[in-house]
Write a structure and sequence with these properties.
Shape: globular
Number of helices: 16
Largest sheet: 7 strands, antiparallel
Low-confidence stretches: 72-80, 126-134, 155-168, 376-380
Strand content: 25-35%
Helix content: 25-40%
Bound molecules: guanosine-5'-diphosphate
Oligomer: single chain
Mean pLDDT: 82
Length: 596
């Protein structure tokens, strides 16, 4: 207890919203709300600095004190081991074999992380493919003296923290880049604290050694002060002078990685349970969801069914970091996979399950648990916000706006703000950004009792589910004046009943046939739910809607059918549209009017 009777809590120099919630025994949404009431927009994986965290803590009845690095380490030592390490601990020790070390590069901004990653990539990319890698998938492998090393190619703390926040921290070794002309800076200290808390050994790359104002001894002193005593001073931190820009010292640095790796037990069971961490994921227009996974145990194979958070799917194709198609990937291998039904979050643990059916069952069970929790949180539909506004309880309509391109955002925000003039209610645009409606948007909306409005975008499946359980309204438009009209009506209390859309199933187009007299027919298989002859249809390519309308025919074999269930194949014509392609997704939905 402090003098004023508050509980004392020790916090690091920066902390994610998720960790802060955990340490203060609050829900992440509570923390996000307090941050917002203080003018800070944050999502669950975002880092807030100590001062901000202290304000939140104080509103939750705690007095915050700065945690020292030693305390962070102590906490990690007594705290939980990353999930993947626990999972490996479950493997039969006799079956564990060495795997390449996974290295991540941290350091203060502008100290040369990106340049160093590029220098390593160019000098040592495994096996002599001239030209090296043209694409970045978030990780790559290099070879040094016949030893493979895996580098996580997402410098910066956000990715690292997101991974740590999920207990999935994937790196075995941290290379801490410190510019020899600038020395230890706030983010250097933060990186040290993170690496220590995760119990990951640090190798220092003393960068920019070519600069005339480089002062290595001064920086080594600073490092020692921060608990990283250089080995030449009888400490146990390897400090390697490098110039990322001139590609000097790279071999020495890789040598240090191999040395450090040898002293650690970096093992996995290539024949064991298959799991790992999602490094990054995105939607590609043509290929659908592309996810980079780091295999941490077992051997991932093309055709396996993978589950990661609330995304799942069968691996349709798998590529190595050079973009070469591969069929198998063992421990420490980064791969890019095609076939997930939705974008998983970075840092999420993935694992292989026996079937898509099992994956769905796992996700459904988790969601029903989450829904139970969410049922107790207040709802934020447009009509309720409006009635509260009318009752004088709330004089503000809060909006989160998503649009396909930056160019649309500004006019939308401006036109919406213009509506305020004729109304007693203020319009507060909390957040506007390009991109599909994501889970983060819904979380923000839920925390702030806001509505999410999308223009020419769709809502990710995970976002839709969260919106449903949190009772958040997502309204999607493709015509600006309709959107403006709706908000205007909401302000005036004359909004028509909302038409609620329910997705009833999705199917993949696997083949396109040209049949004389009939025209182009899409042949496909229903991957979840069912598709119905009389339901609405939207065609998705790379996660984006490219057409919507209706079926003009739906057949199973030769028969006309009213519906086709999950797992079954079908042939279909779309009314007035035949520009579909293999790989497109047919989504069926029904519209129901819900009254206010
Ligand atoms: P990051 O923010 O840590 O990723 O840093 P960058 O890799 O973007 O580097 C920041 C700036 O420092 C760039 O202008 C680089 O060209 C420069 N830089 C990086 N490494 C070196 C180096 O070894 N020597 C010199 N002189 N400049 C470097």
């Amino acid at each position: 207890m402090s003098d004023n009777g508050q509980n004392v809590i020790e916090l690091p120099g920066s902390i994610t919203v998720r960790d802060l919630a955990q340490r203060t025994s609050a829900s992440p949404i509570q923390v996000i709300k307090i941050l917002m009431s203080n003018g800070v927009m944050a999502n669950i994986n975002q880092l807030v600095d100590f001062d901000t965290a202290a304000i939140v803590a104080s509103e939750l009845g705690f007095e915050a004190r700065a945690e020292t690095i030693e305390e962070a380490v102590e906490e990690a030592e007594t705290g939980e081991i990353p999930l993947w390490r626990q999972l490996i601990a479950d493997e039969d020790p006799a079956k564990l074999t060495n795997r390449p070390p996974v290295v991540t590069i941290l350091g203060h901004v502008d100290h040369g992380k990106t340049t160093l990653l590029d220098a390593i990539r160019h000098t040592n990319v495994a096996s002599g493919e001239a030209g090296g890698i043209t694409q970045h998938i978030g990780a790559y492998q290099v070879e040094h003296q016949n030893q493979l090393i895996t580098f996580l190619d997402t410098p910066g703390h956000a990715a690292f923290t997101a991974m740590r926040a999920r207990g999935a921290q994937g790196a075995d070794i941290v290379i801490l880049v410190v510019a020899a002309d600038d020395g230890v800076m706030p983010q250097t200290r933060e990186a040290i604290a993170h690496a220590r808390a995760a119990r990951v050994p640090i190798i220092v790359a003393l960068n920019k050694i070519d600069r005339p104002d480089a002062n290595p001894d001064f920086v080594k002193n600073q490092l020692a002060e921060n608990g990283l005593v250089p080995d030449e001073w009888d400490g146990d931190t390897i400090v390697v002078p490098v110039s990322a820009k001139q590609k000097q010292g790279i071999e020495d640095l890789l040598e240090a990685v191999n040395l450090t790796a040898e002293s650690l037990s970096i093992k996995a069971n290539p024949d064991g349970k298959v799991f790992g961490t999602v490094i990054e994921a995105r939607v590609d227009r043509a290929k659908g969801v592309l996810a980079t996974l780091l295999v941490q145990n077992g051997t991932l194979q093309s055709g396996d069914t993978v589950i990661a958070g609330s995304s799942y799917g069968r691996i349709k194709a798998m590529f190595d970091f050079r973009g070469k198609r591969i069929r198998k990937a063992g421990p420490s291998t980064p791969v890019q996979i095609m076939g997930l039904n939705d974008v998983p979050a970075a840092g999420e643990i993935f694992r292989v399950v026996p079937s898509e059916k099992e994956a769905r069952a796992i996700i459904e069970e988790r969601q029903s648990r989450e829904a139970q929790v969410a049922a107790q949180t207040p709802r934020a539909t447009l009509e309720e916000l409006f009635s509260r506004a009318q009752a004088g309880e709330d004089k503000e309509l809060r909006l989160i706006i998503k649009a396909d391109v930056q160019g649309s955002l500004e006019p939308i925000v401006k036109s919406l703000k213009d509506l305020e003039k004729d109304s007693e209610i203020t319009i507060n645009v909390l957040h506007n950004e390009t991109g599909n409606v994501s889970e983060n948007d819904v979380m923000l909306a839920s925390a702030s009792q806001a509505i999410v409005i999308g223009f020419n975008v769709t809502a990710d499946a995970a976002a839709r589910r969260l919106a449903e359980s949190e009772g958040v309204s997502i309204r999607l438009y493709d015509i600006i004046y309709r959107m403006i009209e709706d908000v205007e009506k909401a302000l005036k209390g004359m909004l028509e009943p909302e038409v609620k859309e329910t997705v009833i199933g999705q199917a993949n187009i696997l083949a396109v046939f040209n049949i004389s007299k009939v025209g182009k027919v899409a042949g496909g298989r229903v991957v979840n739910g069912e598709i119905r002859r009389n339901a609405k249809v939207r065609l998705l390519r790379g996660g984006k809607e490219i057409w919507h309308g209706e079926f003009s025919s739906l057949k199973h074999g030769k028969d006309d059918v009213r519906e086709v269930r999950q797992g079954f194949e079908f042939g279909a014509n779309l009314r007035g549209y035949d520009d579909f392609e293999v790989g497109d997704v047919i989504e069926c939905y029904i519209l129901e009017k819900t009254s206010f």
